[in-house]
Design brief:
The chain contains 4 helices and 3 strands; from the N terminus they run ααβααββ. With 98 residues, it is α+β, with helices and mostly antiparallel strands. The chain has a single domain, classed as Arc Repressor Mutant, subunit A. A 3-stranded antiparallel β-sheet has the order 1-3-2. Helix 2 crosses helix 4 and helix 3 crosses helix 4. The longest helix has 19 residues. The protein is elongated and about 75 Å long. This is ROK family transcriptional regulator.
Length: 98
Amino acid sequence: MTATTQGAQRQRRLLRPTTKVLPEDARAHNRSMVLQQLFHSGPCSRADLARTTGLTRVTVSDLVSSLMTEGLVTELGLRAEGKVGKPGTLVGLRTDAF
């Protein structure tokens, strides 16, 4: 291999995008998905958010908790539907925060 060929290969490797996803990037993406879902669908329960975003309930609960701490999301009370089991607590965006 010539020096020119080796240099070109090295440059291509350096220009390739990395495929590593850092935890903080994943958290920011998941947070964005939760906020977008609340924006588009309105208030919903954590379980609904988990179903629609594909995230786990634990992840959604952690994200909602941090969004509440930041004042972006608030709990709106229990769902008024007559389903079996414990009614879900609705969460929604705080319109005054945006």
